[in-house]
Amino acid sequence: MLALLIASAIAASLLVELGLMVARDWMEASQFRHEDEREMNGAFKRTSGGAW
């Protein structure tokens, strides 16, 4: 019984690792790119310290 529990825990761990690898590859290969705030500064109007 203990061997079955250990084997299922190892199998679950390997499946989680495989899922994370697939998700990481899918995110890197997707066309959607995350832009950080520094790249988006020109897209928004400045709201503090500026004249209206």
What does this structure look like?
The chain contains 1 helix and no strands. It has 52 residues and is mainly α. 0% of the residues are buried.
Span between termini:
73 Å
What fraction of residues sit in β-strands? under 5%
The total of helices stands at 1
Secondary structure tally: strands: 0
- Any idea what the radius of gyration is? 23 Å
Major sheet details: none
Helix content: 40-55%
SSE pattern:
H
Shape: elongated
Flag low-confidence runs: none
Mean of residue pLDDT values: 79
- Given helix and strand content, the structural type is mainly alpha
Brief summary:
By secondary structure, the protein is an all-alpha fold. The protein is 54% helix and 0% strand.
Salient structural properties:
52 residues; mainly alpha; elongated; 1 helix
How are the elements arranged and paired?
Layout: H1 2-29
